[in-house]
Amino acid sequence: MPYSHHSHSGQFCGHAKNSLEEIVQIAIAKGFHTFSLTEHIPRPIEDFYPEEETEHTEASLAKLFDDFTLEAARLRVAYSSEIRLLIGFESEWIRPSTLGIIQGILAKHSFDFFLGSVHHTHTIPIDFDRAGYERARAKAGGTDERLFEDYFDSQYEMLEALQPPVVGHFDLIRLLSDEPDAEFKDMKGVWERIQRNLEYISSYDGILELNSSALRKGLAQPYPCLAVSQIFIRMGGRFTMSDDSHGADQVGTNYARMLAFIQQAGIKQIHYADLEAPRKDSRFPTAGFSSISVDDLARLPFWSKNQ
């Protein structure tokens, strides 16, 4: 009965599939203990994804997010006897106006936690398609190394401004790079930024997401890669698990491979959002985080059920 802290549905995300209720139902069928509903925040029209440009206005995208919070709350009650559902969102960090959008969302709604993510560098999406990645790289100076530096600088700005309880796909920037499994080797400035960001996350007791979506997209390791994970281990950092599913067929995908990675990395504890845990962040009075040892995690019946 493991955990996921990052998911999307076709009902509330244009590049996903299935209704939110269908996502919850498959999570129950697969034996999840805790599953978090975390749709993307609304964005200004200049930051719409292609599938949104013909379907939405800024007002309708904002209403869609409001509708998500209502549906998530309904599902939490409806399925309370079968699964623990947490309600959050996945942030962006695109341009100065993003901070105001996030502050407005936090003021309007009550959440259990949220994911702090970066999908853009120089306001250009870096994981949506190769063409976008190459545009961002050209704007950064023409090399992966320069783009990586800018990405981690942008991430640091997000971390300082938001102190997100969970940091989403820490090294997403490597997905479309020339050597996505190179673990940032021989990039001194990048490594310095990675260590700086991890130290900051550790300083406010943030949690790093282990995200299995990298595996289904063809990478050899989840986010973050082994070298980054082991730096955070040495800092005493905390980790959680996510599938970052964008449809029912991706719920729990590659979790067995991610468990093997967790064991290889030497991670000893996995943390999960818990409505019954002590609250440490006053912004989120409804939930804290509990933990399970990796040894106990590996003994759960989920693994034999989902081979």
UniProtKB/TrEMBL annotation:
Coiled coil start-end: none
Annotated SUPFAM superfamilies: PHP domain-like
Reactions catalysed, as given in the entry: L-histidinol phosphate + H2O = L-histidinol + phosphate
Residue span(s) of domain PHP: 5-213
EC numbers on record: 3.1.3.15
Organism: Melanomma pulvis-pyrius CBS 109.77
GO CC entries: cytoplasm
Pfam family, one: PHP
Gene3D superfamilies: Metal-dependent hydrolases (3.20.20.140)
Class of enzymatic activity (EC top level): hydrolase
GO biological process, one term: L-histidine biosynthetic process
UniProt cross-references to InterPro entries, sorted A to Z: Histidinol_P_phosphatase_HisJ, PHP_dom, Pol/histidinol_Pase-like
UniProt protein name: Histidinol-phosphatase
Pathway field: Amino-acid biosynthesis; L-histidine biosynthesis; L-histidine from 5-phospho-alpha-D-ribose 1-diphosphate: step 8/9
Gene Ontology molecular function: histidinol-phosphatase activity
Organism domain of life: Eukaryota
Keywords tagged on the record: Amino-acid biosynthesis, Histidine biosynthesis, Hydrolase
